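sry for the spam today, last one i promise. C-alpha cells for design, 198 residues
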C-alpha cells in the first residue's frame, strides 16, 4: 500500500499519521491521501476519504481550524490553492477543488462549501462566503462578509445556492444567487429575501 502511495506522490501511512504530531486531526489516517508538500496549520480536521494532492509545482495551504469532510478532493496541479481559517468544505456530499497551471483559488476565513460542488479555473471565495449545492464554479468571485452564523443576512459573504453551472459570476456582500441550471441567467437577491426577520 505504501508503495502505491509513494508512486502517486502521497505520504506513507506512517507519514500521514505523523501529521497529528504537528496538530492536524485525523480520525482515520489510513483513508486520507496527502502530498508531502501540503502545508497544514494546527487543528485542521481531515475526515475519512479526503485527498490533498500537489503536482507539477503547485501549492496548497490550509489555515487553522478548517474542517474537510468526507469526499473532499483538493488538487493543486501546477496552480495555487489557499484556504483560510475555520472553513467548512465538503459536508453533505463532498467537494472538488482543482487549480491547474497558472490558476489561483483563494478561499477566505469562515467560508462554507458543501453539497458536492466544485471549483475549477481561478476563483475567489471571500471571507464568510458560501457555495451550497452541486454547483460547478469557474472564474467566480464571492465577496467578503460575515459567516452564515452572522445574525444580519445582508452582511454575510456572497452566496451561490442550488445546482448547475456558474461561470464568471460575481456575488456582492449580503447577496445570493439561487439557480437550477445556468447561474448567469438567474436573479441576484439580498440574503434577507431568503432569511426575513420577524
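last one done:
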Amino acid at each position: 500500500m505504501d508503495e502505491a502511495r509513494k508512486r502517486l506522490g502521497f505520504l506513507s501511512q506512517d507519514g500521514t499519521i505523523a501529521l497529528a504530531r504537528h496538530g492536524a486531526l485525523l480520525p482515520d489516517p489510513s483513508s486520507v491521501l496527502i502530498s508531502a508538500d501540503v502545508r497544514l496549520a494546527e487543528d485542521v480536521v481531515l475526515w475519512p476519504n479526503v485527498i490533498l494532492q500537489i503536482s507539477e509545482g503547485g501549492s496548497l495551504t490550509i489555515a487553522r481550524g478548517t474542517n474537510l469532510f468526507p469526499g473532499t478532493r483538493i488538487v493543486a496541479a501546477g496552480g495555487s490553492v489557499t484556504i483560510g481559517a475555520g472553513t467548512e468544505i465538503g459536508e453533505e456530499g463532498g467537494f472538488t477543488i482543482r487549480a491547474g497551471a497558472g490558476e489561483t483559488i483563494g478561499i477566505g476565513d469562515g467560508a462554507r462549501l458543501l453539497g458536492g460542488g466544485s471549483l475549477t479555473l481561478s476563483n475567489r471565495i471571500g471571507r464568510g462566503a458560501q457555495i451550497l449545492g452541486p454547483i460547478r464554479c469557474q472564474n467566480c468571485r464571492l465577496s467578503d462578509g460575515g459567516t452564515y452564523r452572522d445574525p444580519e443576512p445582508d452582511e454575510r459573504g456572497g452566496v451561490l445556492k442550488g445546482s448547475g453551472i456558474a461561470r464568471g459570476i460575481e456575488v456582492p456582500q449580503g447577496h445570493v444567487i439561487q439557480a437550477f441550471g445556468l447561474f448567469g441567467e438567474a436573479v441576484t437577491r439580498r440574503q434577507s429575501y431568503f432569511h426575513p426577520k420577524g
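The first helix runs from residue 2 to 7. ok im logging off now
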